Amino acid sequence: MASRQERCIHCGVLLVVPAEVNVFECGVCHGITQIRPSTAPWSTQAYNSFHSFTGRFRGFLNTIRSTSSVNTNSGGYYGANSFGLYPQPHSLRPSFHVYGSKRAVLCGIRYHGKSYKLKGSINDAKCMKYFLIKHYGFPSDSILMLTDDMEERNQLRIPTRYNILMAMRWLLENTQSGDSLVFHFSGHGTQQISMDGNEIDGLDEAICPVDYEEQGKILDDEINTAIVRPLPSGAKLHAIVDACHSGTVLDLSFVCKMNREGYYSWEDQRFPRANKGTSGGLAVSISACEDSQTSIDTSALSGTEATGVLTYSFIQTVQNEPGLSYGRLLSAMRSTIRGTKTGIVPLNGPIASMFNRLLGMELRQEPQLSSSEVFDVYTSPFVL
To answer: Into which family does the record put it (predicted)?
Structure first.
């Protein structure tokens, strides 16, 4: 099927659309663009108007980076409708300044006040930031962290669906050959039936923003569109996704299937109707578990604070084994997780006996490695 490139008139992202399509929805900002049969000056005018607004708005955002916004939410919960940020007019699409060749977006969501709240996700984001700065030399200004920490006062730093998608756009903005990008997510993940028929198992994977019940989840198709497809030649993206059902959450072309003895093969996930590749760069995802598995946070690994099992085992393995390969990283994390108890406090009473037996079980999650291209996992060094 023939295709062409068209730019979203709302956020400016360049997208590939079928040649016969006259109206399309942006996979990043979800703005609707109608392709008008107009002359070049109209398109140029719309594009220039967008960038004129963006330039003025960036000055405002730069001020926000160094000062805290006033929060008028007296309830103390930084959730779905606390900020009045959404739904926003499609013409208001904030961006952030880009800092250096190493950049990262870190998301930690606890889901305060919900029955499904987590304990370790904000700790995960904070630990990952410290790790990137101290171990790999990421500048602090190049790390954008979004959490629902109760002390967070900056409206743009709350991990809503809107803010996460805009942070993803920031991560890829002006990316060049040699750049190293990191996307880390610690929170809930889920699956749903794929409506576009581009999944081998018929299911889309998704991450859950803090406001997903009102504004929706972020599907693997959207993540791929936002941070995988635009990745240019020579640039590298690593995603560390600490969530349930996250094995193929970036919709990458190949999944590394490794057994307990360390033997592996690459499983081709490409689908005739889906473009899962990059624009020449390398995208690698390290996720908490297979698509069919769940992931937990626990204090059993750290002994004190609750953390996501993947995030903790990932950081500890890389710190303890300098110069390790992707294959060694994957097998070492799996080995650490297999022998770990869940760290749940035993319940009292006769009805708790079955639940307490879980304390003697090893964790049932296997970290996964997927990639936009095939490589030798035991000879390729892991470097961010």
So the answer is: Belongs to the peptidase C14B family.
